[in-house]
Design a protein that fits this description.
The structure is a homodimer of 228-residue chains.
Chain A (H helix, E strand, L loop, with lengths): L4 H8 L2 H9 L6 E2 H8 L3 H13 L3 E6 L2 E6 L2 H14 L14 H5 L1 E3 L2 E3 L1 H12 L3 E4 L2 E4 L1 H9 L4 H6 L6 E4 L6 E4 H13 L3 E3 L6 E3 L1 H11 L6
Antiparallel strand pairs in A: 1-3, 2-3, 4-5, 6-7, 8-9, 10-11
Helix pairs in contact in A: 2-3, 3-4
Chain A binds a DNA duplex (30 and 30 nucleotides) through helix 4.
DNA sequence: TCTATAGTTCGATATGCATCGAAGCATTGA
DNA sequence: TCAATGCTTCGATGCATATCGAACTATAGA
């Protein structure tokens, strides 16, 4: 019968953990290292705290490559923290600058074998609004119209299907903290960009540099708006 | 800067203290000895806890003779605890029934200083359907017709306006997961129910027990349907 | 392959704090 | 005045846990 509000409160009651949770109030997923910096503790300590928060179901975690992205578990957790902030009348959450500082990297870069950065978000949104893909939260699905579209662009789906990896996959973007397109289709799109010489890969960093003609052509092909 | 939410949460994070605070959710002021019994600790331990809670401004204390009466400091403290109960019931038994198991508590109980439970939900819906209040998600507003109605029932709005707390406020119900009416108007309604002897407050729990005449009169006054 | 980075586990340390016994105030009622 | 009750302070004890160094696994990128 005893609803253990004490247990939940104790989780919130540690300064390092509360700093992490407040940092996550922005809604963006943050990595363990970022949260360690935010809480001003070492990675080991942060790992221990994060394990407790996940175990206490205050956070959910998505593993992606060698990163772990943490987010508040549900909206009511955010509401609880909001209420706490309200009671303490402490309304300053210092916004953390996430991801790379290099503007070129923020704009477009390679993520393993597909496109990441602002342009990849624009691409993703455009594909969704055209009805080519469906965002289902943790999963992304290619629709029939999407399949037709990419087939017309020269994608050989039989060949893609042979590879073990999924054709269509969402990937949490490092700088934007939004889903972008991964999978073998994401790979095809990036290779297609290079093949058409719309962009070149930077030799020293992961940045992808579009030329002006290429950027326009890219935007036209996928009907991407708000290209700066 | 320093997240005071950790300080407040740590206060709530001790089992003995959280038991005391939940006991005070009934809205009644309790003495140190009563709270010690409630928390199942000795008088010395309770004294230490209560000093911390008063110092942290979660409680206020009134000395009366050789007794000390403790109460929740403000309504937002009660709301914080309600939200905590809400979150813990989401987490602990996601499959089972949420909130209190006691059917009397589910039916009607005191939430700090206003009515909670099934009947409060029925009241809220009735007020909305009559156009007396407007539910705006996070806010609840009293309409002009609502103001006229309650004025006719004897509510002194000039007096209510003097208090710092809002007249009309929504409060998320622990067992029902729906908004019910809080604020000074919610307080007036509960006091009105007691004044008209439609219900009595249980001495040991937060339950509010309506007698059959009172329940009918209550339903008639506010035009509440589906009273079981 | 190899190197750098992300994150975890383990062990040791230290600190905080809840708890209660005993003693001390404070107030009431006789 | 005295005894009874309500509450607090002090001191000792013991447990929980936050912290970090060092060593470990896993992944990315070259």
């Amino acid at each position: 019968m005893e609803p253990n509000i004490a247990f939940i409160s104790a989780l919130l009651g540690d300064p390092a953990r509360s700093r992490m949770l407040i940092a996550l109030m922005g809604g963006k997923a943050l990595t363990a290292t970022e949260l360690a910096l935010e809480a001003d503790v070492t990675a080991q300590t942060a790992s221990s705290h994060l394990a407790k928060l996940v175990n206490g179901e205050l956070l959910i975690v998505r593993k992606q490559g060698r990163h772990k992205y943490f987010q508040l578990h549900r909206a009511d957790i955010a509401q609880l923290i909001e209420q706490l902030l309200n009671v303490t009348s402490n309304i300053n959450h210092p916004a953390t600058i996430t991801g790379p500082t290099d503007p070129n990297l923020r704009k477009a870069r390679v993520c393993y074998d597909h496109l990441a950065g602002e342009l990849s978000i624009g691409l993703y949104d455009a594909l969704v609004s055209k009805g080519f893909i469906i965002d289902q939260g943790f999963e992304t699905k290619l629709t029939n119209t999407g399949r037709s579209f990419f087939h017309a662009q020269g994608v050989n789906f039989d060949k893609l299907a042979k590879a073990r990896r999924p054709v269509c996959k969402s990937c949490l973007d490092w700088s934007e903290r939004r889903s972008h397109l991964a999978g073998s289709l994401g790979h095809w799109i990036l290779e297609d960009i290079f093949a058409k010489k719309w962009a070149v890969r930077d030799l020293t960093s992961r940045a992808v540099s579009f030329n002006s003609k290429g950027l326009n052509a890219f935007a036209r092909m996928y009907n991407i708006k708000n290209i700066i």
